[in-house]
């Protein structure tokens, strides 16, 4: 690694270490009087880079790209094994022509897409550096440094893809085609694992065959540990509890001297309630385990549906990854055990309702990818890969019938009885949405092509599922070193994304809608509009428009969760037409379902909308938790929050509950959550952390008054591995506002 300007010399490091040790051993009684100054970190490391020796061309940062926001940068991958705090970045820059002026800065983004091929920034920037004046650049290439202040030094996860992007600061620039900056890139023989990115005409784009010259630096936490143990009470404090993991005292250790926890004030459930819900969900899942063709699998319902079902498998497998990866592998194997010689994985391996004659939402490849990412089980991946390719080929061949929009998928089924009065119902069932009002627009009319029957509608659910299928296959091919297939599937994903945006996006309403084969849009507002998010199809602008609809109280942001049809749409709980034959006429016509809730949650996280995703997840957990007489119902009434029917203990309802509990860190996380139930002050000023009698320094990373806060603790070396306690609600606790402000700036 090259020595960077501004690094401390060894003598300075010793002085700083002595100062920090002095702070730690000062008597706690003097804490309110201590003036803690921001610490200067000395352990800066290189996180990722691409050397200036590779530069053979340039990328222009100028007005020809986008009038109100100019950006160019590179995706990169953080080192494995440990988190790191980003601290600075460098790009190879020069004033190329004219006299451009203004300010430029570096931003850090999460990314979506395939690293090295089409990875692009997603969501809002995670952090932004200081600004550099363009006039300070020379006419020859030089590495230009950008530093991030302490409050912008976000924590990056290990072995994770991010983007470092050079941006022009809006309102300060004189960029034009005659006045611009050039960024050094390699276009002849790029070898970096990432790819160049740029912002053009309101959209992030990728250059998979180019790499920017860049350096990204950060701080690596010291290797140590802390633990959890049982709670005790301390006289004089109203409340005391340990940081809990999985709802029980645990000795789970992390390799860091600092950790974060979120204190939620007055929202959600207590830990005991969450653990009770988690345990109940686990009971449902384990009670639905059946053996199919020699593999243990979680069936939808042990009595009513005791065999594997196609898209139910996805949620069961993802859920099992949180508690039993062996079971997750068995669930996937059971799904492949149903596969036919032509590649089809049926709705279910049963002739009832011709379920073995059609498939459903194709999510299995994503489950396989998630399994590999959790286990690194390459042997299983190699066995499943050709089976997935055959399944993709079958779906692409028969889901895109003659007369439809090329490559977009239409609902379809084969039939034992070529024509009867349930053909339309079975076609709808082949999507997984049995009497969904989108298909009312067909009038029950079906189109027979060869051995298959179709609705003349290109479906958002199935087309988005195929785009995710292609995206997952590109990632799997990359993992297995099949570069040819990786390119093919990446192109298929890009092609599908373009078609969905071209034909299914309604610019007037800011929604995605299904389309008839003649390209006329189906005039309905359903939960399907959000499903392109799962495959990274919408642009940031489109995603923002979708979020507006999702969080609208008159559409989808209802008290109990996300309905399958917008509450202000005429088809919300409209009567089903007679050709759908559903025993429950309200089945998919407005109710709240586990699969659509989770897919929307996943889609929001793809675009960096974590807060909104958490709101949706918490609302789901509340609705499920409150339904005592029918636990883990198949679905819930959007108007009342009650179970939609009297049959309880459905697997995908329990599976999504376990998934959301795990992903929200309510049950299992490296970032524990403690619920304090309105027992703290609104500004959390009575929060204290102790190991034994030693009070810990802490830093409030985020603070949302009266709602939640995220704290980082400084654990002295000699106390690592000891129980950490949080105290709150002490009426005698004193607070020094100036002391708090200094702590916010304290670098951990």
Report what the structure shows.
This protein is of the alpha+beta class. The protein is globular, with a radius of gyration of 28 Å. The model is unreliable at 1-42, 64-69, 221-261, 265-269, 666-672 and 731-748 (pLDDT under 50).
Can you describe this structure in just a few lines?
The protein is an alpha+beta fold and 748 residues long. The chain contains 14 helices and 34 strands.
Helical proportion, percent range: 25-40%
User: Main sheet, how many strands, which sense, barrel?
Assistant: 8 strands, antiparallel
Low-pLDDT runs: 1-42, 64-69, 221-261, 265-269, 666-672, 731-748
What proportion strand? Answer: 15-25%
Give the C-alpha Rg: 28 Å
First-last Cα distance: 23 Å
**Number of helices, counting only DSSP H or I runs of 4 residues or more:** 14
């Amino acid at each position: 690694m090259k020595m960077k300007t501004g690094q401390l010399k060894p003598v300075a490091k010793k002085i700083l270490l002595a100062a920090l040790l002095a702070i730690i051993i000062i008597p706690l009684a003097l804490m309110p009087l201590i003036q803690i100054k921001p610490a200067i970190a000395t352990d800066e490391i290189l996180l990722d880079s691409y050397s200036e020796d590779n530069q053979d061309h340039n990328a222009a940062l100028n007005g020809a790209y986008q009038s109100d926001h100019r950006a160019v940068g590179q995706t990169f991958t953080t080192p494995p094994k440990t988190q790191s705090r980003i601290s600075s970045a460098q790009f190879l820059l020069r004033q190329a022509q004219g006299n451009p002026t203004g300010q430029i800065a570096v931003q850090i983004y999460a990314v979506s897409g395939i690293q090295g091929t089409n990875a692009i920034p997603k969501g809002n920037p995670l952090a932004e550096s200081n600004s550099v004046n363009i006039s300070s650049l020379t006419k020859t290439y030089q590495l230009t440094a950008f530093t991030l202040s302490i409050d912008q030094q976000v924590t990056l996860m290990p072995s994770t893809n991010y983007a470092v992007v050079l941006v022009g600061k809006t309102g300060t620039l004189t960029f034009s085609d005659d006045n611009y900056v050039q960024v050094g890139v390699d276009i002849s023989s790029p070898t970096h694992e990432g790819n160049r990115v740029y912002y053009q005409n309101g959209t992030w784009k990728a250059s998979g065959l180019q790499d920017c010259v860049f350096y990204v630096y950060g701080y690596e936490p010291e290797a140590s540990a802390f633990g959890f143990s049982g709670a005790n009470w301390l006289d004089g404090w109203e409340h005391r509890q340990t940081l809990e993991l999985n709802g029980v005292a645990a000795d789970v250790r992390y390799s860091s001297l600092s950790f974060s926890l979120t204190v939620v004030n007055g929202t959600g459930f207590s830990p005991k309630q969450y653990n009770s819900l988690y345990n109940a969900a686990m009971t449902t899942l384990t009670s639905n385990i059946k053996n199919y063709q020699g593999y243990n699998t979680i069936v939808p319902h042990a009595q009513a549906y005791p065999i594997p079902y196609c898209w139910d498998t996805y949620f069961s497998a993802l859920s099992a990854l949180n508690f039993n990866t062996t079971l997750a592998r068995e669930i996937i194997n059971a799904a492949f055990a149903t596969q036919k010689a032509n590649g089809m994985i049926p709705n279910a391996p049963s002739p009832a309702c011709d379920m073995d004659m059609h498939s459903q939402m194709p999510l299995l490849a994503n489950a396989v990818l998630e399994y590999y990412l959790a286990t690194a089980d390459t042997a299983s991946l190699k066995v499943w890969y050709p089976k997935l390719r055959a399944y993709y080929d079958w779906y692409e061949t028969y889901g895109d019938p003659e007369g439809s929009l090329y490559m977009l998928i239409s609902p379809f089924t084969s039939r034992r009885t070529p024509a009867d009065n349930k053909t339309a119902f079975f076609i709808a069932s082949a999507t997984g949405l049995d009497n969904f009002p989108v298909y009312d627009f067909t009038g029950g009319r079906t189109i027979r092509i060869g051995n298959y029957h179709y609705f003349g509608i290109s479906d958002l659910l199935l087309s988005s599922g195929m785009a995710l299928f292609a995206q997952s296959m590109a990632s799997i091919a990359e993992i297995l070193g099949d570069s040819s297939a990786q390119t093919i599937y990446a192109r298929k994903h890009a092609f599908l994304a373009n078609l969905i945006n071209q034909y299914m996006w309604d610019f007037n309403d800011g929604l995605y809608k299904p389309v008839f084969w003649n390209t006329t849009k189906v005039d309905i507002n359903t939960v399907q509009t959000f499903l392109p998010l799962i495959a990274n199809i919408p642009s940031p602008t489109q995603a923002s428009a979708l979020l507006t609809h999702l969080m609208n109280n008159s559409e989808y942001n209802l008290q109990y969760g996300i309905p399958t049809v917008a509450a202000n749409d005429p088809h919300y709980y409209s009567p089903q037409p007679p050709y759908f034959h559903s025993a429950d006429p309200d089945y998919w016509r407005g109710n709240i379902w586990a699969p659509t809730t989770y897919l929307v949650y996943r889609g929001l996280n793809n675009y960096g909308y974590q807060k909104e995703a958490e709101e949706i997840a918490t609302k789901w957990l509340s609705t499920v938790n409150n339904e005592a007489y029918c636990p883990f119902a198949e679905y819930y009434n959007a108007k009342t929050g009650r179970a939609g029917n009297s049959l309880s203990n459905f697997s995908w309802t329990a599976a999504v509950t376990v998934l959301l509990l795990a992903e929200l860190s309510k049950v299992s996380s490296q970032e524990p959550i403690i619920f304090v139930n309105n027992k703290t002050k609104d500004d959390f000023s009575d929060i204290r952390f102790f190991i034994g009698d030693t009070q810990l320094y802490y830093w409030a990373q985020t603070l949302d008054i009266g709602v939640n806060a995220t704290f980082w603790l400084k654990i002295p070396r000699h106390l690592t591995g000891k129980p950490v306690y949080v105290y709150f609600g002490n009426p005698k606790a004193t607070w020094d506002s100036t002391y708090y402000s200094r702590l916010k700036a304290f670098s951990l």
